[in-house]
Description:
Elements (H helix, E strand, L loop, with lengths): L1 E3 L4 E4 L3 H22 L1 H32 L8 H8 L2 H7 L1 H5 L1 H4 L5 H5 L2 H6 L5 H31 L3 H29 L12 H26 L9 H32 L2 H9 L5 H20 L8 H23 L12 H23 L11 H5 L4
Antiparallel strand pairs: 1-2
Helix pairs in contact: 1-2, 1-16, 2-3, 2-9, 2-10, 2-11, 2-15, 2-16, 3-16, 4-9, 9-10, 10-11, 11-12, 11-15, 12-14, 14-15
Amino acid sequence: MKFDSQTYLLTDKGKFGNITLIIGIIGLILSAVGWFTDSKQFYHSYLVSFVFWVSIALGGLFFVMLHHLVNANWSVVLRRFGESMMMTLPFMGLLFIPIIIGVGELFHWSDTELVANDHLLQDKAGYLNYTFFTIRAVVYFLIWTGLALMLNRISMKQNISANFEQIKKFRIISAPGMILFALTLTFASFDWLMSLDAHWYSTIFGVYVFAGAFLAMLCLTSFLIIRLQNNGVLTKAITKEHYHDLGKLIFAFIIFWGYMAFSQYFLIWYGNIPEETIWFLHRWEGSWKIISLIIVFGHFVIPFFVLFPQTIKRNKIVMTVITLWILVMHWIDIYWLVMPSLSHHGVHLSWIDLVAFIGIGGIFLYLFWRFFTQHPLVPINDPNLKKSINTVS
């Protein structure tokens, strides 16, 4: 891997892209084998992995729109990471096809006989049905893809020549885009995760999913920056000040995620309505109780105290470990949301969980690396680039 610090281009991209592509293809092939051996397990494992990776892509889209809306200076040098992640969304839409095929295995509201004997599911049938579910998924990905393509198109034009009209266009897209993002992510979380148990509902579930998604995106960005700098890339453009700012955002969203998780649990516990509490009771049975405790301490308590000191946020070694830790916790959190609908009384890990994860993850990372290395690694004509490089926390 060779980097030109004058043009901010990678003159030698290394083998990372080819390796991740090969791993992704092998993972998807093995996942297909898993489909033949145990289709129900495959669809649930695939859903966990898909939501994990698409949540990071959506976190990238949110990061880019937020950056443009608030006209941030410090995050200019980080913008390419968010842009490259969001540009995977059109391809993630293609990877959603197996979930559409597996609706009958994943969601009990798709069983016509079950719906016929369940008054609540009958009331929700106008929303929870295969046709409308598919249409909504297509709409979500069209909106996300449209926003990503429009923002990326302006960004690529900025590489050639900069003008203030581009900044205005960024904001014109990002302002309504943020509203569309909030609505689509909320309804997607209802469709793909909450409707796994169609009797249960939570009004803040979408915010809970968003908090975990953006936190995971920040952690992956921080981890990738450290790995790149260890290979001599962006060593002068990205400084400890940026690590500190990223660390503060990660710390803030650890708290925000924890607040959403606690609020959701506390209100349901306090209301004590059987159709609401049953969802948490399923996650307090057998070995699911252990996973629930792991999420409480691993996703909130431990990262909170690790990242509390200011100096830690500037320490590359600690940040490498804690960002990987949070990414693992994010996967466990999604696993905890999905898998009790398959294994009601305890955790049942499967080899399909692993191959689906590396299959979708390999393709995601390959696409990310392809978009990331096609152009300068920072927006070279952004009027705030110098301010970003010289930022002070």
